[in-house]
Amino acid sequence: MREELELAQSSQATDGLMSIPALMRRNAERFAGKAAYREKEFGIWQCWTWSEAREEIETLALGLLTLGIKEGDFVAIIGRNRPYLYWSMVAAQMVGAVPVPVYKDSAAEEMAYVLAHCGARFVIAEDQEQVDKVIDVQDQLPNFEHMVYLDPRGLRKYDHTALHQFQKLQTEGRAQRLAHEAELEARTGRLTYDSTCVMLYTSGTTGKPKGVVLSNRNVIQTSKNSVDFDSLRADENILAYLPMAWVGDFIFSVGQAMWCGFCVNCPESEDTMVTDLREIGPTYFFAPPAVFESQLTNVMIRMEDAGRFKQWLFRKYMAHAKKVGGKILDGHSVGPLDRLNYALGNLFIYGPLKDTLGLGRVRVGYTAGEAIGPELFEFYRSLGINLKQLYGQTEATVFITLQPNGEVRADTVGVPAPEVEIKIEDSGEIFYRSPGVFVEYLNNPESTASTKDAENWVATGDAGFFEEGSGHLRIIDRIKDVGKLADGRMFAPKFVENKLKFYPDILEAVVFGNGRDRCVAFINIDLKAVGNWAERNNIAYASYQELAGHPRVLETIQGHVEEVNRSVAEDPMLSGCQIHRFLVLHKELDADDGEMTRTKKVRRVVVADKFKDLVDALYDGSKTVSTTTEVTYEDGRKGSISATLELRDVAVLPTLSQQVAAE
Question: What pTM did the predictor assign?
Fold first, then answer.
């Protein structure tokens, strides 16, 4: 069976497969009885084969035709990862429309901007919550006409003039098949490699999100190249849990899944994701650093609660894994005694731990979106998990660089992906061009022209350089964030922030220092990890704010910062980025408050402006500072919280040049 699947996916290349619907139909013919989608509902895994998925998609497409959908219409898709919503994207493509996945946790006003900007006529929403958001802002949506909803709970008494239940629309599509089948075939047949496949909005770290238009060529060619690079097969299993509006999920759960014909598994909910991950045991897995950080935090919490013998055994074998695990994974020579000890560690520690994490069957794993701390990266690889880094962005249809097996390192992002060219400008900015280069930013020719030139070279906004000898790319930071300290030394905040976030009790860090004489930092504690520590030590607390300001918590965080300073001091290029003072924020940075994007990237400018009084206090030598901050509650109401924060000084080590000068 495996040989048949591999032969099927390798034959015919892209001949005649110029669109995602074409790939779907090919899969329905070649892999008809093979699992294409699974979803856990009410604790039971439901399964659809490729032939069943084709039927679901085509009847939905026919249903959309009954509503009068036109070629070129934009269809917004809002909800969590569900087969029905993935089918909606393909169905929209079949009728010549453009799917626009939207972050499900977006506030109504954020949705209003996206839907109005693209002029969406149709919305396919998961449930009442998403329907209500659209209804709340529909007066701002002049093009909006029809909304299709998946979950009917709570919607019985709504005005259904423009509301349509998903399954009923499919039923109507089946009933009208004879009337619309020829039109559906004609529209699907008109799709070409240059037809728009999807539009995805950027995270908007520095301004309003931009609509990135990606063609079938972008998606299919990039999917094919990345599949070939890692020898992905039709018998892979992935867990689709990342936001559907993010380009990574679209490529892994739609592009690569359609090209390969592998199975996409959707968890029951965010709360059951970890359990569902263990049940599926994916062979191909992607997660941003935050997910890996959270998993490691959970591991460390459990070990703190374990008995002394288990803690000793864990520390003993993890120390050995750190020493030889990566070498064994990369196929390097390791002594027989070390290999034997590693095998014992795999029996007692690594194997059970990987199974607990749901990563026991992972053959290829990737992380991207943010730089990952080297300690975190090495932890997973030491367990024997083939975790690699990739570098990409929405405008590249994800892939710019990839790490080949045997050449995986924490401090680089690998070599150019297949068919990708990269150049470094004198300013240090990275430029690339590839088959994945986006078509345009919708309704924004100025930004399109400033991002890619006439020769299709795209400015990434990142600073980096190629290592001599290895040819691997190293990313320093966002070029807008890289600066200089007052004495001319380089300032690259992400380098330090990633080291801080390795500690389980630090959730987020923001470092300041550009143009200043020294660096300072904001810290967010991880409430789960620190709360567990507080419970074990009989420390009572009533809120995040109270725990964040506890003297023992501040002492622990100070110890972490000083450890990071010792590590940073060893880097000759970035040793000036040691942190001199810090504070623990009285609230978590939150996307609802505008401090982070929906993809959990810090909006530095917003944070610096919003907490200017705290930044100033860190630099003027104050020991405490009182502040009041506006916050947004879960129901959308606004409020404020006040706090008096303690500011702490941190030990700083002399840099290598200072040591030489002193001698």
Answer: 0.85
